[in-house]
Description:
The chain is mainly alpha-helical.
Amino acid sequence: xxxxxxxxxxxxxxxxxxxxxxxxxxxxxxxxxxxxxxxxxxxxxxxxxxxxxxxxxxxxxxxxxxxxxxxxxxxxxxxxxxxxxxxxxxxxxxxxxxxxxxxxxxxxxxxxxxxxxxxxxxxxxxxxxxxxxxxxxxxxxxxxxxxxxxxxxxxxxxxxxxxxxxxxxxxxxxxxxxxxxxxxxxxxxxxxxxxxxxxxxxxxxxxxxxxxxxxxxxxxxxxxxxxxxxxxxxxxxxxxxxxxxxxxxxxxxxxxxxxxxxxxxxxxxxxxxxxxxxxxxxxxxxxxxxxxxxxxxxxxxxxxxxxxxxxxxxxxxxxxxxxxxxxxxxxxxxxxxxxxxxxxxxxxxxxxxxxxxxxxxxxxxxxxxxxxxx
Length: 374
């Protein structure tokens, strides 16, 4: 009897069993093969003159898009499944990037322009020592902890006051946008100790290994791909669990959830904080691959773009936001090279067309086409 009950309640099934159902196991297997075998072989082993060779630039570009896909997935959990539209997720992404960037800056050592123990921007500003919040950032493990703790703590405190005050809808979106704008202005100031408008750049090594070597770049790419797959598996588990069902109920009718005996505050705060942590991890993986982090990553426009990726791909679907992040950023890479002056017009037009004609996003269109064929 107990065994039958477990099988009929999917949120109680083991994670591995649920991932293997419905073809998910094959999809994860193919993704693992691409990330861990195909891409490394095409980049490291296939000669550069071959048509099958994958250049370092393409590896970096795909790795960057995978980081953006994590952002879109994090946005989908709070917007697509919980109904909370955030226009400030860029600040969580940037905080994770800055946290790991502090470690990367300390790894430069005496290889900077001024050959000092301090980063070049601190020497230029006549700083004599690191500020207190830089203490311990020379440790790789502490930097990883900080990349998770900084955005997580900010989200926890911000979410506690916002959700406790029952701020929702457009008002919540506005204050999240105000939050990221305030942090952007703060990080632009030189006296905050984060490099001002230039931010952090000119990274040299990670764990004592040169960051520009093909092997290190590939290691970062593989780690990014595996992290995205782990986040996707976790998100899949969450949305199909009892916790995920409550989140969906909050999205559809929060007042009924309250009358049913659930406290929406705890559920919204939990998924909000988790979403911020996911953004922080994405930022920590983004910085060593791209080679720079500056306050521009906190701009409100960047946070709005995250919502656009999610909407274009299809919010509330998990895979849709990943697809949206890939389509938009792939197109952005091409447009900014071929037609840089028209990129923003294209993005705006794409968002308008999707809103008017594809309310379920690109993934919804694909599913509709498959349904029509069958």
